[in-house]
Structures are given as C-alpha cells and as structure tokens.
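Priority: medium. Attachment 1 of 2:
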C-alpha cells in the first residue's frame, strides 16, 4: 500500500508496515526510527520518509549453517522507504563506531523501540570513537561540497549536507560524544555567531524549496566550508586511534538477547 492511498498518518502506516515485516520475515524489531533530512530537521516539502530499523531473529537462525542475510530492504514507493539491519550486523558496526548507527540510535523521530534496544545501546555507546566519527563526517562534508556546491547555482539543500557534518566534527572535538541528530540543536551549540543569521535564512529558504531547488552559490559560506575542511583534514590525521578493540561486551549482549529470543518474542 502506498502512502498516497493510505487514509491514516505516516506514523500509522509505518507501524502497520513494521508489523508486516515482523510477520513476513519472522523477526523481532528492536528499534525503528526516521533517518535523513526529516530526522535532521531540514526536510523539503517533497522529502521522502526514510525508516531504519534493527531486528533480531531466533537463536536457531544464527546457529544454522545456511547462508545468512543481515539486512531487510522493504522499499515501498517514492514517499516511504523502509530497511533494516540484523542485530549481528549492527553490533559489528558499532564495534567500528559506525557514525550512521549512532545517528539511528539518537534519532528524535522514534517509531518503535524496546527495552532490549536500550540494553543494546547502553553497551554500544561505549564503542564510540571520536576519530572514526569525525573522519566519517569530514568525508561526508568534503564529498558533498566538491560534488554539489562549487557551481554558480547550487542545490541549497546540499549546504546542509555539508554544514551538518562540519558542525558534527566541531561537537565531537569539543565534547567527545555523539553529536545531536537535529541540525537546530547542533547549530545552536557550536555554529559561529556571525554565521547564524545566514544559516537560519538559508534553512527557511530550503524548507520552502523542492528537493531539486537551486539558488546562487553563497561564496562567503563556501569560504567558511573550505577553511573548516582544511582544518579538520589536518586535525583528524593527527588524532590517535581511540576505537575499542575488545568484543566482550558486544558478544555478551548479543548472546543474551539471542537466548531470550528462543523463549519469547519480547
């Protein structure tokens, strides 16, 4: 069923689809959130909904010899896209301090969650690596800047795909913890005072534009971005590797939840 044909709210449709996924795929969904521009707080009027979830299968599935798929892709239409990761894949990527996973864990838009997910994240948060996360955000900002913001006319939404990861680097550098997902919260804490009016005006303009809407390049903002990219390239290269090598805590939470899954479906 497409969202345009559904009479209820988007939250109702997501809830319906999550239950359908559990029944069809024989999984238990531990956590489901909105990701991307709607979670970041700068969606365009025609932005789609990107639902991401973490799921768990029965213990016997993990013990079996069959080839295992560690994701579920449940794309629906141009408005609603849903896909998820198996808990085993999730914990492996938490061990690498995957920045995207930390964003899912801290998304302000939560469609479904469980006490078991709280247990998972309380363990996984100890694997956050400042260097790994900053490298991710620096790479995201640099890629989007070079690909989308150097022409005379640019998509204004791309400024936020560059500014947000730069501000995330600033947050991590100052606070040594995962940055907020909402752009407004992030900017309110670390964005330079002399840029706030410009960025706020740009945000309001962007919210009124379609996803493909363009405007003249903002050279003073580009200058700021270039200086930040140069600074963080040097700063991150000089940082020590702070990833946690030990797997014990992640293995323990995975084993605990798999055993529980053989007794109940939560």
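Attachment 2 of 2:
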């Amino acid at each position: 069923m497409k969202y345009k044909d559904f009479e209820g709210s988007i939250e109702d449709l997501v809830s319906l689809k999550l239950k359908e996924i559990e029944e069809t795929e024989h999984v238990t969904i531990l956590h489901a959130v909105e990701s991307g521009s709607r979670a970041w707080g700068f969606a365009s009027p025609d932005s789609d909904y990107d639902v991401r979830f973490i799921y768990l299968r029965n213990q016997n599935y993990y013990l079996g010899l069959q080839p295992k798929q560690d994701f579920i892709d449940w794309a629906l239409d141009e408005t609603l896209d849903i896909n998820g990761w198996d808990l085993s894949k999730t914990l492996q990527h938490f061990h690498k301090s995957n920045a995207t996973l930390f964003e899912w864990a801290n998304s302000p838009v939560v469609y479904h969650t469980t006490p078991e997910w709280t247990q998972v994240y309380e363990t996984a948060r100890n694997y956050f690596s400042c260097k790994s996360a900053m490298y991710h955000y620096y790479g995201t900002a640099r890629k989007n800047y070079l690909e989308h913001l150097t022409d005379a006319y640019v998509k204004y939404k791309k400024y936020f795909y560059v500014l947000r990861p730069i501000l995330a680097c600033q947050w991590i550098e100052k606070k040594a913890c995962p940055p907020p997902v909402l752009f407004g919260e992030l900017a309110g804490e670390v964005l330079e005072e002399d840029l706030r009016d410009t960025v706020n005006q740009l945000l309001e303009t962007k919210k009124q534009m379609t996803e493909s809407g363009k405007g003249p390049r903002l050279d003073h903002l580009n200058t700021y971005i270039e200086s930040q990219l140069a600074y963080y390239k040097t700063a991150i290269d000089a940082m020590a590797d702070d990833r946690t090598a030990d797997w014990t805590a992640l293995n323990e939470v995975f084993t605990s939840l798999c055993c529980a899954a053989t007794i109940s479906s939560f």
